[in-house]
Amino acid sequence: MELRGVRVRYGLLEALHGVDLACPAGRVTVLLGRNGSGRTTVLRTVAGVVRPSAGQVLWQGRETAGLDAYRRARAGLALVPAERGVFGSLTVAENLGLSEPGTVEPSFPELLPLLTRRAGTLSGGQQQMVALARALLARPRLLLLDEPGRGLAPAVVARLHELLFRVAAEGRTVVLAEQGLPPTLEAAAVVHVLRRGRIAFSGEPSELRGLVR
Amino acid sequence: MGAAGLTLDLALAGLAVGSAAALSGVGLVVTYRATGVLNLAQGAQAMATAYLLRELVVVHHWPLALAAVCCLLVAAPALGVLLDLAVFRPLQRRGAGPAETMVAGIGVFVLLIGAAVLIWGTAPYGDAPPLVEGTALAQPGGHVLRLDTAVQLATVLVLATTVGLVSRYTRFGVRLRAVVDNRALAQLAGVDADRISSAGWAFGSFTAGLVGVLLAPFLLLDPYGLPLLVMETMAVAVAARLRSLPVAVVTGLALGVAQSELTRLRPAGQLLPLAQAVQTNLFVVALLVAALLPWSGGSDDTGLALPGGGRGGRGATAARTACTVLVLLPLGFHADDLRHALLVPALALVLLSVVVVTGYGGQVSLGQAGYAGLGALGTALLMSGKVPGLPALPAVPALLLAVAVTVPLGLLTGWPAIRRRGLALALVTFAVGTALSRLVFDQPYATTGLTVSRDGMPTGDRGFYTVELVLLGVGLLVVRNLHRGRLGRALTAMRDHQAGASAAGVDVPRLKLLVFMAGAGLAALGGGLMALGGQAFDPTAFDPVQGLLWFATVVVAGADSAAGAVLAAALLVGLDAGTAAGVSAVVVGALATVLGRMPGGLAGLARRAADRATVPARPGPGQEAALTPLGRRLRERIAERAP
Questions:
Q1: CA distance B396 to chain A (A)
Q2: B97 pLDDT exceeds 80?
Q3: Fewer CB atoms < 10 Å away: N or C end of chain B?
Q4: B329: closest CA among B469, B479, B154, B514?
Q5: How many interface pairs between A and B have CB atoms less than 8 angstroms apart?
Q6: CA distance linking residue A195 with residue A34, whole number of Å
Q7: CB distance B181–A70 less than 8 Å?
Q8: What is the pLDDT of residue B298?
């Protein structure tokens, strides 16, 4: 997956000012940045939620312009948003069933006793697990996650990161947007740092750590 | 036949109305569950389908079966899909709030009624073809159930069961609920939300059409009666809280049977007219009760603030100038034209009441026509000497006393507004307006024996128009004072963020009561002037359908624009006087349906255009930007502080 000179506007405000970045298949890519840096906009642009005013989004070597969000999802893209990632009026089983009827992702056994509960009645962390499980069940070729650890216990976050590396090892592309780089993600292939809608750094996590020191 | 036999016969007769009401309720619930929109246009869609069926069968002599298939399985669903594509989908894509969606629904309602008036006129037709003959089916004990009632009942039960099963147990049903829950997220989950919501609209429109063609043979088919009747059956959907199909079915049937059984109730003396009014309007009473019971208003618990168009600027000055010229112009008119113009200041005051309640206070009120009617009826009763203990009063004291009495009645909608928001409040206000129209204005004491004259006022139209202008000026001053200073800021805060306003120390409940009482007073003043202008009390002038047209007009003009309300009144009266009946409704309805593309209405559009015209051109490379005096001072200060 690759972005070339992508610009995104929200009304009069330009959120991305010509972003170029590449996320290799089979590895985990981390987009780092503060609030307002544009990392969520990058994910939403790739998923087709917002349309770029200029530039190209390439996936599997093809330009994705004009492809609706649901067509991208059917083609194997999944986005787990940072907030409200579940259908609150549907049960947990129905939420998961939208991706794969009758199955629950084994990485989240915590969800098994909650299958008949309405997702809107769960805690924030449980809702996040439902959103992640639904995305993983779709077996996406490109998985985009916006701060997936938000609301989860540290042990669950570590388990999630392990799982994401396993997903990437199957040849799939995994992209996470985070505010900071946790130790469990240091094995990521690429880190892109966004600042005020521009790429400020692209490289290996070790290079970034060297710069910070 | 004994009492028990009579009870059973009445119950069987009541099932006819009850099953139609249940079907209407199921249609509303299904559309809401499928699209997330309370389809206020359902009654108008029902009316349009019934007219089309009559046109094909009676006028063009099509076979009934073929015409029914074309109307119910082709035209009605196509109308639903068209509404989705042209009106509601653009709103959803823009992330419009429930207020705009509701106004768009009212716009469709008004547009379809206006189109029906233009095409078929207002004369009622009594020859709408029945889908099923009313053959009597003999029951044990000699009781009779009509075939059409049995078919209606079976249709309701089959439809409700099928929808319930599809919604709960099929993949399509889960996807449909996912789209209603969170459209954007559903698309990210690979659901084609557009196709799903189109299917929901097509099905909702089919049920609306079915209600129309089933009910039309029992009524005189006209553009106003059937839509309003279907809207009254909204009681069924509200009782079901827009969710439960079994509750909708049971409530519809129970109300139909109860209405039939109540015909036996004959209390002695003065209670008889009241009992008869309640029996005839049981669905209105039920709507009022259902709307007043605690309810969050479906899944939408947010406010219904409409996007404002901003304030002030050159656009506002231009609007005020145009407004002044327009209202002064009729003073030079010929006598016949001036008679039409008498309605402009009166209607402007009624529309200003909507500006105060909805535009400034952020409280959607669909019942302002009721307060206008109270002002008109009060003036007429006081002038006719029909108020016990009071002699017949001249026009001015009668008008002022009617307004003074109506102001505290603003609590009828103001009090429920304290604990209600969103859809729940909109429905309460509509129910109050409808109840006033049916239970107060449509009664014999209000429709016969009242005399309204301009006794004590200038009797000529020119003099009366001048008095109207003075009162309009007073109304505008009141509105201006409500929108300025500390009170204005508190109102704006309440409209934009109720919880935030409370946290900032604004007494929100008191403010709500104030806007509803001020709105009631302005509407009553306008209504009283309407009665004096026409020298009669006309209950149809304050019909709830009229109220919806007025509400849509204000929102189209710009809900927070007082000048817009006056211009809109002139436009409505001008269109009604100068064009065919129905044109004004078509224009207002069409504009309301595209409101999603012009936030703030026409006033917002004008303000933005004026702002664009006054913004200096961007400086070219190497050129200094032209600054205002404030901008120059700010730049100097920044330069002084720069290291």
A1: 53
A2: no
A3: C
A4: B469
A5: 64
A6: 7
A7: no
A8: 45
Chain A residues in contact with B33 by the CB 8 A cut-off are none
Partner residue opposite A87 with nearest CB, options B181, B187, B193:
B181
* CB distance B227 to B109 below 8 Å: yes
Contact assignment for B188 to A78 by CB distance below 8 Å: yes
Average pLDDT value for chain B: 86
Phi, psi of B144 (to 5 degrees): -125, 130
Question: Helices B193-215 and B3-35, interaxial angle, to 10°?
Answer: 150
Q: To probe the interface with A, which of B188, B191, B300 has the most A CB atoms within 10 Å?
A: B188
Q: Is B391 exposed, middle or buried (0-12, 13-18, 19+ CB in 10 A)?
A: exposed
CA dihedral angle for residue B370, residue B376, residue B380, residue B383, rounded to 10 degrees = 130
Task: Please indicate whether, in this complex, the C-beta atoms of B184 and A49 are within 8 angstroms of each other.
Answer: yes
Q: Which residues pair with A176 in a beta bridge?
A: A30, A145
**A179: domain CATH number?**
3.40.50.300
Q: Give the SS3 label for residue B312.
A: coil
pLDDT in tens, A1-21: 899 999 999 877 889 999 999
Pair of tokens at residue B17: 């109305």
Q: What is the number of structural domains in chain A?
A: 1
Instruction: Check if A49 contacts B (Cβ < 8 Å).
Output: yes
pLDDT at B625 over 70: no
Q: Percent of chain B beyond pLDDT 90? A: 43
Q: Report the SS3 class of residue A57.
A: strand
B162 or B632: which leads in pLDDT: B162
Q: Residue B631: its pLDDT value, please?
A: 74
Q: Which residue of B has its CA nearest to A72?
A: B190
The answer to whether position A122 is within a domain reads no
Tens digits of residue pLDDT in B420-451 = 777 788 888 999 999 999 889 988 877 777 88
Which pair of structure tokens corresponds to residue B153? 């009942």
For chain B, say whether A140 makes contact (Cβ under 8 Å): no
Answer for the pair B576, B614: CB distance below 8 angstroms, yes or no: no
Structural domain containing residue A201: 2-76+140-212
Q: Which domains does chain B have, with CATH numbers?
A: 3-128+144-292 (1.10.3470), 313-605 (1.10.3470)
User: A121 and chain B: CB distance < 8 Å anywhere?
Assistant: no
pLDDT at res. A102: 64
**3-state class (DSSP) for residue B122:** coil
Query: Closest Cα of chain B to A44: distance in Å?
Result: 10
